[in-house]
């Protein structure tokens, strides 16, 4: 009896390692944690820097004006003094000046009436100039993750082709854990910047290896679309939970608390990967993948990558600029800065899961075209909001539309490789992740500078118009042509409309069957 009981966990592990669903669970959890860390800092960093740098500097300078009041005792016997109480000038003797000091009159204070502070009773932050500069600094900090990821992605794509997807996934977990712990204990802008950049390296390993692994496991186009929709649901759930979770924990518990919770969840993810993926196992692709340079010259892949880039650039521009704009115009408390992104996150979660199935029926190109148009319209409506409730509609439409684009374009990337290139997916999902990261690199860095130059409403108009103008290009993905070699292989079922590639996979895995020889003759 005991030996049988001991064999049960090993049987479960063996079955799990052969299960496609558990691979999907691993990728889902990895994307969930990555995007929770991505968005949990959005409401924390602007207010944390404002509190530690601006308010900290002013509190150390504030007591200084009370000390120079003593030289007023040396005033001449008769001198004129201006009273801020009733805005009148009075003549006071030397003895009277001491009495004035006793009543709180200070002649050495700068000529600014105390009445200038009451207009901010509702919690609006002071320091307009500091907040304008902070737009740029926070934008660069947020963009550092995507910039590093942009550089690392091509190398990860090549690495997955050589050693498989399992080891890069586990490397991504280790780097993500270190980045999360560093966020928890960073107290300066420089350390936060380094932690964010480190996150970019870990995210590159996790996302490229995870999406490539799904595409290689789910070979049928319809099943792949559903699996990608579920995996992007993990991404959406991370975005959904991250910003509200960060703002509430920062407000009521402390700055380190949300990052420590994420670090604990990352450890659980690492344990799951050790059990399911066997990250010590090297499993290179049996077929040499299409070179990255060849994929980058494919116009259809570039159109799909551009849709991913520009649709996500809108929300990337909102991340550093919207909280600061809310602080300036709505006098929002800390917890509202993260809650403003909640409608976008919920609608993105709905959009990715809904259109993972519907996009295959209505046409992924049409789903993407409509999604990009809605993204542009939603961004144009954001500056019209007067309070946090006015952001519900625009942000909700924005998240839903981005969900439409992402859940359509990720499967299209795998479809284009199957249709026009070799069915090895590391490089093409490196390109997809590069496009995603370009949006999150250019968006925050350029967004902060544009807001400082021409204002937040103008920024929303610019990026909204860009999305609307790009949307018609998705029409070219309606019926992309296959290469001549692929036409010969796919013509057996339904030319140019084939949605399943199991036949191609069979030919690659078992090249010595009789059927494969016959089909090879037809191909010639």
Give short descriptive properties of this protein.
20 helices; 73% helix; Growth Hormone, Chain: A; two-stranded antiparallel ribbon; 524 residues; mainly alpha; disordered C terminus
Q: What is the string of SSEs from the N terminus onward?
A: HHHEEHHHHHHHHHHHHHHHHH
**Major sheet attributes:** 2 strands, antiparallel
Regarding CATH, which class? Mainly Alpha
What portion of residues is helical?
over 70%
Q: So, the CATH homologous superfamily?
A: MFS general substrate transporter like domains
Provide the residue-averaged pLDDT: 75
CATH topological fold name: Growth Hormone, Chain: A
CATH architecture label: Up-down Bundle
Strand order of the largest sheet: 1-2
Q: How many domains, as an integer?
A: 1
Radius of gyration equals: 29 Å
Number of helices: 20
In terms of per-residue confidence, which ranges show pLDDT below 50 for 5 or more consecutive residues?
61-122, 492-524
Taking the alpha carbons of the first and last residues, their distance comes to: 60 Å
**Shape designation:** globular
Number of strands: 2
Structural class: mainly alpha
Percentage of β-strand residues: under 5%
Membrane topology: Multi-pass membrane protein
GO molecular function: serotonin:sodium:chloride symporter activity; xenobiotic transmembrane transporter activity
Family: Belongs to the major facilitator superfamily. Vesicular transporter family.
GO cellular component, one term: synaptic vesicle membrane
Can you lay out the helices and strands and say which pair or pack?
Elements: H1 2-17, H2 20-40, H3 44-61, E1 78-83, E2 88-93, H4 94-102, H5 128-163, H6 166-185, H7 189-217, H8 221-252, H9 257-276, H10 292-296, H11 299-329, H12 334-339, H13 342-362, H14 364-381, H15 392-420, H16 426-454, H17 456-470, H18 484-490, H19 502-509, H20 514-523
Antiparallel strand pairs: 1-2
Helix pairs in contact: 2-7, 2-8, 2-9, 3-5, 5-7, 5-11, 5-16, 6-7, 6-9, 7-8, 7-16, 8-13, 8-15, 11-14, 11-15, 11-16, 11-17, 13-14, 13-15, 14-15, 14-17, 16-17
């Amino acid at each position: 009896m005991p030996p049988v009981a001991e064999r049960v966990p090993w049987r479960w592990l063996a079955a799990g390692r052969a299960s496609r669903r558990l691979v999907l669970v691993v990728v889902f959890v990895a994307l969930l944690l990555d995007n929770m860390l991505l968005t949990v800092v959005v409401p924390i960093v602007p207010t944390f820097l404002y509190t530690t740098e601006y308010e900290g500097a002013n509190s150390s300078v504030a007591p200084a004006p009370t000390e120079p009041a003593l030289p007023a005792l040396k005033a001449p016997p008769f001198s004129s003094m201006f009273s801020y109480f009733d805005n009148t000038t009075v003549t006071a003797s030397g003895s009277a000046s001491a009495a004035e000091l006793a009543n709180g009159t200070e002649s050495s204070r700068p000529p600014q009436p105390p009445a200038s502070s009451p207009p901010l009773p509702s919690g609006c932050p002071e320091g307009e100039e500091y907040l304008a500069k902070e737009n740029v600094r926070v934008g660069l900090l947020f963009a550092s993750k995507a910039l590093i990821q942009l550089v690392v992605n091509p190398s990860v794509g090549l690495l997955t082709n050589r050693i498989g997807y399992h080891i890069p996934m586990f490397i991504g977990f280790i780097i993500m854990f270190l980045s999360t712990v560093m966020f928890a204990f960073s107290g300066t802008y420089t350390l936060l910047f380094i932690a964010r950049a480190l996150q970019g390296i870990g995210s590159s390993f996790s996302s490229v290896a995870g999406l490539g692994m799904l595409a290689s496991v789910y070979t049928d186009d319809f099943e792949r679309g559903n699996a990608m929709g579920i995996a992007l649901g993990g991404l959406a759930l991370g975005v959904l939970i991250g910003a509200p979770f960060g703002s509430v924990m920062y407000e009521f518990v402390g700055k380190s608390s949300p990052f420590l919770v994420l670090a604990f969840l990352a450890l659980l993810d690492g344990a799951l990967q050790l059990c399911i993926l066997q990250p010590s196992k090297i499993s290179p692709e049996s077929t040499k993948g299409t070179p990255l340079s060849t994929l980058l010259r494919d116009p259809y892949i570039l159109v799909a990558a551009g849709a991913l880039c520009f649709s996500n650039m809108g929300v990337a521009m909102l991340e550093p600029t919207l909280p600061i704009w809310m602080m300036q115009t709505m006098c929002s408390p800390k917890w509202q800065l993260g809650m403003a992104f909640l409608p976008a996150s919920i609608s993105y979660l709905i959009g990715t899961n809904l259109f993972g199935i519907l996009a295959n029926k209505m046409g992924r190109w049409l789903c993407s075209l409509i999604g990009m148009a809605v993204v542009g319209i939603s961004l144009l409506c954001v500056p019209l909001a007067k309070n946090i409730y006015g952001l519900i509609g625009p942000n909700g439409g924005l998240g839903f539309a981005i969900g439409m684009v992402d859940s359509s374009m990720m499967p299209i990337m795998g479809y284009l490789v199957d249709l026009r290139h070799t069915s090895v997916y590391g490089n093409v999902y490196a390109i997809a992740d590069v496009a995603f990261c370009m949006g999150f690199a250019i968006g925050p860095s350029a967004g902060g500078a544009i807001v400082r130059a021409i204002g937040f409403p103008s920024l929303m108009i610019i990026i909204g118009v860009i999305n609307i103008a790009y949307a018609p290009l998705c029409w070219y993905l309606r019926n992309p042509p296959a290469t001549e070699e692929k036409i010969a292989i796919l013509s057996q079922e339904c030319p140019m409309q084939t949605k399943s590639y199991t036949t191609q996979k069979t030919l690659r895995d078992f090249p010595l069957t009789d059927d494969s020889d016959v089909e090879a003759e037809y191909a010639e």
